[in-house]
Design a protein that fits this description.
Sufe protein. Chain: A; 6 strands; 2 domains; 4-stranded antiparallel sheet; 18 helices; about 10% strand; alpha+beta
């Protein structure tokens, strides 16, 4: 293994440990750095940081150790399958039906991170993680190549990156080793500046190139007559991509758009909101063991003898802690306000649009979870219960 790959493997391992210890997974500055650097430098998250990417690489190396021959997807099929993860990204952004949310709850990348953080997941999601890990013995990064919509998002962000992998056409001997070792099945030998949205900057091609400096990472080589033409376009696109992402990072603690929903639920408006009639299995990704551990959530929490006032409580959501403020008036729950959550906005909004209203209406945490957002639902319910228990 070349020196650069040893460094990469070591950094992947470090970030795996950081994820396990929770130092990285909710660290806003780290995520902001990734989001800002990607449009400039390309995708480094997938090959240097992502824990599930590391596991796929680990199994790939294990396959090499046991002399298992790596297979490549035929080019004709590859050209079709390569669009899968972008289609999935589009569906996740545009389609809001329970079936989609339930299917996405099996995402092995997300569930592996949850597993590292000590959250219980279902047998089904564990099986999915194991399947992709075992397939990695025979194919490099199968999940990253065809199904990871997070990687697709980063890839699209980096499409006009000013720094990338470059090929010196004058010294290239067309041995095609770069194509063979590329885990993302990119035909590097046909590029001068590698601008593929599939590229994850693993530098396997650079490490295995037999001719020194034929492949390198650096500033894109524009032809002089095109440089002035593309530079303003590049700057504008980088600004348009980066500004919304930065805004989203620093507003993640208040995930609801105030123009669409209020994140404060008052008893006076409760009759305008229908009671949830959705089921408890978002989530097939919710393990029966986790449900058992959260049985206390399903019990009513009395507010008798609680002094009027506001109380905060915290519990674990889908991606981290959810903090709520519960206001008691006349010994009844009057309002519930979500103060902080790091869950994905689209999933969290489904739970937050229903659960607080249902709790206030029933004056109990014994309410149905929202299909497609079970973890966020449980997080809100447990946080409310935590606040009430602290108030006693």
């Amino acid at each position: 293994m070349k020196t650069i790959q040893k460094y990469r493997f070591g950094i992947q391992f470090i970030f795996l440990i950081l994820t396990i210890t929770s130092f990285f997974i909710n660290f806003k500055i780290a995520m902001l750095t990734i989001l800002v650097s990607t449009p400039l430098l390309g995708v480094f998250y997938c090959s240097w940081i992502c824990p599930f990417g590391f596991i796929q690489d680990l199994f790939s190396k294990l396959g090499n150790l046991f002399k298992i021959r790596k297979r490549k997807m035929p080019k004709a099929i590859q050209k079709i399958l390569v669009f899968n993860r972008y289609v999935i990204l589009l569906i996740v952004f545009l389609v809001e039906v329970d079936l989609i949310f339930n299917i996405m709850s099996f995402d092995p990348r997300v569930n592996f991170e949850k597993l590292l953080l000590g959250n219980l997941i279902s047998i089904g999601t564990i099986v999915v993680i194991c399947i992709f890990s075992l397939v990695s013995l025979f194919f490099d990064r199968p999940f990253c190549n065809y199904l990871c919509y997070e990687g697709a998002k980063y890839g699209l962000m980096s499409i006009l990156r000013p720094f990338t992998i470059r090929r010196n056409e004058s010294t290239c001997i067309n041995c095609n080793k770069c194509n063979i070792v590329c885990p993302m099945n990119i035909e590097i030998s046909k590029c001068s500046n590698l601008r593929s949205v599939q590229c994850i900057n693993c530098f396997q091609c650079i490490s295995n190139c037999p001719v020194k400096d034929t492949l390198s990472y650096g500033k894109v080589h524009f032809k002089q007559n095109k440089k002035n033409k593309y530079l303003p376009i590049l700057v504008v696109i980088l600004v348009l991509i980066t500004v919304p992402l930065v805004y989203n990072i620093f507003n993640r603690t208040n995930p609801l758009n105030a123009e669409k929903h209020s994140n404060i639920y008052d008893k006076t408006t409760i009759n305008d909101t229908p009671k949830s009639s959705t089921s408890n299995n978002e989530s097939s990704s919710l393990d029966s063991t986790k449900t058992a551990d959260n049985n206390s959530t399903e019990n009513s929490v009395g507010t008798t003898n609680i002094t009027d006032g506001s109380y905060t409580g915290t519990s674990e959501g889908f991606r981290g802690p959810i903090t709520v403020k519960v206001t008691i008036k006349d010994q009844k729950i009057s309002t519930i306000e979500v103060l902080e959550s790091s869950d994905d906005m689209k999933w969290f909004n489904r739970a937050n649009a229903t659960i607080p209203n249902s709790i206030i209406e029933s004056q109990s945490t014994d309410v149905d979870t929202v299909s497609g957002a079970t973890y966020s639902s449980l997080g809100i319910k447990n946080a409310v219960k935590d606040a009430l228990e602290k108030a006693k």
